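hey can u run this one w/ iron/sulfur cluster bound, need the structure tokens asap thx
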Amino acid sequence: MKNRILPVFIPFAGCRQRCVYCSQNSITGHTSTEIVSSAERQIKDYLGISSNWDELAYYGGSFTCLPGALRLKLYSLAHRYGFRKLRFSTSPDCVTHENMAEAAENGVDTVEIGVQSLDGEVLRLNKRPCGAEETIEAMKTVKKHVGKLSAQIMTGMYGENFHSFDATVNALLDVKPDYVRIYPCVVLKDTELYSLWLSGDHIPLPLTETLARCAYAFILFEAAGIEVIRIGLQDAESMKEQIAAGEYHPATGDIVKTIAVAIYLGLGHNPVLDKKYINTAYGYNGYNRSACEGRLEMKDGVKPDLRTVCKRITEVESYKRYIQRQAAFHAQRLVGASDNG
Ligand code: SF4
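ok here u go:
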């Protein structure tokens, strides 16, 4: 059953600097009382919609960079509204053994670390608050104290190339978080990246390359038993208005999974699944339909198993190079096919 998470946004709270791509509204100057009362308002609003929540999440800032007294207020606020299971996102520069032990004591079950990249130069260019070693250490500290580690990474960051993206994926495969989210980096107004784009210093990735990199990472993570819980940005109107450059597709997740199945089919494997899941095999816009012709084995109750699909793909010799090439090929065809309606 789906875990229902009540999201409380504390934008920019605790961030010590501003990463070049980030447009979280600054709350500089806001008192801790204002932060707590804003959080309480959001909790009340969501509880007005539904009382059926499993967990509360503090998102949008760097939770453990907040002063200790404010963190404790936010923990007790969640407890007061009956939440025993919590999660938050934070920045790796503010992760310590002490604040992770405190989080575990207060019911935090998952910590989401904004990793973005594990290439030192990319982190520096994007004004991330710490380097690759410190980020890896922070993730290890989370794993030591808290139940689950989730890592957020980006594709198409300022200064990133396939090599640095691959280094990030490989380093994360070593750390083995429980979950990963993969977001394309788009250029938002009111960010330093916007100025870099205007001056021509930053050229956003074409959509096909974004999709191919996401598919590459998805296949490697899933094959290694790391669950990819999100691929792509939310398709929210408010965010679309903020995007100045950088293509993203609202169905990025579906396209990436379609690419994985296309590669699997291309290797001669035949999907086995219940008839009611046939559209998962056919994929985005029915892209894999003709490749599936006469090859689907229907078995009642068998759900699509993308993890096995990804594992099979990594059994190929020189699989990383193979996935990179195949993902680029299918991304190109899929984008062409959707452009043509
Ligand atoms: S640490 Fe996260 S929330 Fe803070 S400025 Fe950087 S990207 Fe934005």
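The two ends are 35 Å apart (CA to CA). anyway lmk if its weird
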